[in-house]
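Complex 422.
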Amino acid sequence: MSIEEIDLHASLKKHFGFSGFKGLQEEVIKNVVAGNNTFVIMPTGGGKSLCYQLPALIKDGTAIVVSPLIALMKNQVDAIRAVSEHEGVAHVLNSSLNKTEVKRVKDDIINGVTKLLYVAPESLTKEEYVDFLRTVKISFMAVDEAHCISEWGHDFRPEYRNLKTIIKRIGDDIPIVGLTATATPKVQEDILKSLGMPNAVTFKASFNRPNLYYEVRPKTKNVDADIIRFVKQNEGKSGIVYCLSRKRVEELAQVLQVNGIKAVPYHAGLDAKTRVKHQDMFLMEDTDVVVATIAFGMGIDKPDVRFVIHHDIPKSIESYYQETGRAGRDGGEGHCLAYYAYKDIEKLEKFMAGKPVAEQEIGHALLQEVVAFAETSVSRRKFILHYFGEEFDNATGEGGDMDDNVRHPKKQVEAKEDVKLL
Ligand code: ADP
Ligand code: MG
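Predicted structure with adenosine-5'-diphosphate bound:
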């Protein structure tokens, strides 16, 4: 089928009920349908899934989708099934399936019913699966969260490293679609190289979030009081406060509660029931604030988070961008406030001490960027976008006056009264 013959808008409406494409989606989809290697870089929430889901539904054969998280794969499969006539249109292939279930998946693929096959990268190392996939028609291979392939990314997964070899074994000329929300040029290079697609057509959306206000304050011993004041000034609004340690999360949640603020803790040390309860309380607005470690956020889709506070500075600009990115998803106000003390950087350096040297070097380099960001007098937005390889002109760009360094140019961001916090 040629691209001209397909009415992409009609397919979009039919399969997903959407009346138009977002951002670069249409161009990307045309390129994927045409069978080219494609590289998609869009911020979280940009609509990357559709860039492979729609082509998969249109094209002959089955698209293999590699994704690192079983929960995310299941969500997508459920969503696709909900809008399809045949349940077999999408499947997950993983180690938890029994023989009968695996047979059912294989039959659906052989019979041309399955358009999307989601697999975790470790499942693809199974000989049996690879041998099977060699024998069927694969439309293309989508590697979601492709930054997992890079040690420079924030979520390196060694299993992703083998993908290139495995894809080649499944079929020599299978088009590859890599997708990520990580915009740093280093990670991008790594992805193109590691997936073996130097010639991929690259689509990169802007990472500018014009409605977010960025601010860094020096972290003094009064940080808790400062946070309380900030939250009280924003009474009734939803917000997230990120802390490095579980202990600090618990302490700060309590301090906020004692001060009459509706706050709950969230970290991986809490039992699953409590975590779900606290997350739901946040979504249902039974609590205003979640004090959390980075365990909180993946897959949380609350559009009206009005502030994200970093009690502790994150370990990379990317983490900072991802975490602050949870504010203002609805396009409304989103205040991003980070507290910075150089002592916290030293603490993060210490955490890396036991790790392999290469990893330490990368971690150190990423931290230096965080220091530069925290201490810069340049526009925060300009800094972040530059880090992501994007030129930003504050005079003409959207959100050009939305950070502390632009609004209050003389302010020095330097922590004078560092304190031990753990
Ligand atoms: P990403 O993977 O880039 O973070 P998703 O693929 O999860 O983003 O999409 C984010 C949200 O945008 C989802 O709720 C999705 O349904 C919605 N979405 C995607 N494309 C469109 C579109 N063309 N029109 C309306 N909503 C869309
Ligand atoms: Mg995604």
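The chain is about 40% helix and 15% strand.
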